[in-house]
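Thread: Newbie trying to understand structure tokens

Hi all, I'm a second-year student working on a class project, and my supervisor (Dr. K.) asked me to get a predicted structure for one chain before our next meeting. I've only ever worked with sequences, so writing a 3D structure as a token string is new to me. If someone could post the tokens and maybe explain what I'm looking at, I'd be very grateful. Here's the chain:
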Amino acid sequence: MKLEPECIICQIKVRTKELSTLLKDKEKTLKAQSNILKQLIDGIEKNLPINQIATYAFRYVKKVTNCEDPYKEYKEKTNSIAEKLSAKIEPELEKLKDPIERFRRTCIVATLSNTIDPGVAGHAFKEKELIERLLHEEPYIDDTEKLLQQVKNSKNILYLADNSGEIFFDKILIKELKGYGTKVTFVVKSGTFQNDVMLEDALKAGIDKVADEIITTGSDAAGIILEECSKEFLEKLEKADLIIAKGLANYEALTEYTNIIKKPIAYFLVAKCEPIARSLGAKGGASIIKFAGIN
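---
Reply by user tm_fold:
Sure, no problem. This is what the structure looks like when written as tokens:
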């Protein structure tokens, strides 16, 4: 996904919040802000996709603050909340006798969990609001019928994780996918980007108990930057019959690679900003399950 004017404002707000929290010194923060702005200008001039601009800016934040995991406490908090919430939701999904409706509702729940995200300016995760949405919301875009047909015809699914917290709902969906006889490879980051899932988070959540394997991208990039990905990831990508991509960054990244990857992709996300919503023809805040086949 190409850069939109609002994306720069969002980056400035989110990175400034991180710098102010971690540096706690006005002069150091201002100097770091200046360098971030230079990076953003460079990204605009090079017409880089927004996920790459965000990646380079966050790497700078980690470097200048000497903090490798700025969202550690937030991840622990949201993992705890999500674990309890998912334990309440899963039995409700299991009560659904119609397998098509159960698959559909499980996809919706996994999608709505994408609201657990501190990295979008103007968006705030609200636990009580999420509970209500999990139980009752219908997606703005609902391609679960098309997706289910692809799942039934897939031997290998590559599942690109997004935020911590979400993984407890991803776990429920993986169980559902496995019921269709497919192999699921769960993909996490090799280094920190905001509150994105790391291997440690996935293991604590018990993803290894439901997925066939867990691998890393080989990078700490937002979404993926193919040039930075490991050989292992690229091999799994080549073998995949279907990619499930969670979250904004994976959507931003993969829409730039459609002519290279040439795989069916299911995007699961909440449109937490206007540029994403516009690109999907949706309203802001809407939940999206979009299946993109091979043209």
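A couple of things are worth pointing out once you decode it. The longest strand covers residues 183-188. Residues 71 and 195 are 5 Å apart (CA to CA). Feel free to ask follow-ups in this thread.
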